[in-house]
């Protein structure tokens, strides 16, 4: 055998030996399975919150999912139509319309907090601490279908998480009086309705926001882009507006904007 043939045989033998030491590639039994498709079958792991953070997700209408670093989940204006994808530990409700309360809340919810007095003998009074969140309410009034007043028929719910104070105005129908503002205290993030008809008119809501002076203002309850745009047109010379691509936002005291800012999350 010639020398070149010997060298070629040796080279082939070494190559086969090297390939034998490499790990075999895993084979899928599913035809056409691509890596990105396979990854969708894995459970989605959300990033753990730091101890001074809170995560808000705009579920729709007046419902937000609020999550705390300790894992407590809260659904605002919990109802039978628009619900978060997880069972909350706490559900707050208001009674102006059926899209703000539930007749059949999930029995797995630990605490269901109606924003009106169920007995008809006065306002609802809530002051609940669960894990790392305190939930309390500030009663307000609502209009009746007959044009009268249902006193204490709505609640502004306040969520205290670490150093953050979040207020959800619910189905607010009237300007806030000094007593309401004192009961609210300092508010860092306010979630407020902007439809301007079923709730307080847009001019009145603008005054409410000025009186609360929150660093972050997130609109809700606007039924469509036209209503929201009309409200934002009123605010463009007062506060900056940030439009986000995702319905979820994570905030902490340290990351609040330096000046009051309107943050718009996708949804309606």
From TrEMBL:
SUPFAM superfamilies in UniProt: Metallo-hydrolase/oxidoreductase
Transmembrane segments: none
Species annotation: Bosea robiniae
Stated name of the protein: L-ascorbate metabolism protein UlaG, beta-lactamase superfamily
Residues making up the signal peptide according to the UniProt record: 1-26
Gene3D superfamilies: Ribonuclease Z/Hydroxyacylglutathione hydrolase-like (3.60.15.10)
Keywords per UniProt: Signal
Domain of life: Bacteria
Keyword Signal part of the UniProt annotation: yes
């Amino acid at each position: 055998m010639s020398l070149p043939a010997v060298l070629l045989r040796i080279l082939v033998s070494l190559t086969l030996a090297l390939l034998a030491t490499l790990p075999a590639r895993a084979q899928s039994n599913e035809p056409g399975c691509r890596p990105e498709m396979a990854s969708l079958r894995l459970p989605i792991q959300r990033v753990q919150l730091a101890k001074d953070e809170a995560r808000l997700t705009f579920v729709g209408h007046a419902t937000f999912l609020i999550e705390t670093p300790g894992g407590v989940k809260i659904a605002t204006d919990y109802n039978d139509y628009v619900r978060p994808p997880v069972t909350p530990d706490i559900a707050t409700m208001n009674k102006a319309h059926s899209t703000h309360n539930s007749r059949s809340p999930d029995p797995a919810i630990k605490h269901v907090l109606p924003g009106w007095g169920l007995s008809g003998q006065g306002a609802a009074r809530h002051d609940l601490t669960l894990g790392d969140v305190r939930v309390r309410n500030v009663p307000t009034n609502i209009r009746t279908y007959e044009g009268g007043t249902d006193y204490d028929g709505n609640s502004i719910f306040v969520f205290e998480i670490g150093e953050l104070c979040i207020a959800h105005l619910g189905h607010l129908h009237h300007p806030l009086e000094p007593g309401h503002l004192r009961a609210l205290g300092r508010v860092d993030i306010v979630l407020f309705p902007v439809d301007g008809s079923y709730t307080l008119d847009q001019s009145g809501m603008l005054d409410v926001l000025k009186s609360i002076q929150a660093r972050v203002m997130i609109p809700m309850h606007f039924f469509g882009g036209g209503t929201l745009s009309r409200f934002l047109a009123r605010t463009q010379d007062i506060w900056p507006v940030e439009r986000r691509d995702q319905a979820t936002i994570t905030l902490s005291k340290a990351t609040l904007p330096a000046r009051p800012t309107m943050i718009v999350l996708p949804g309606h």
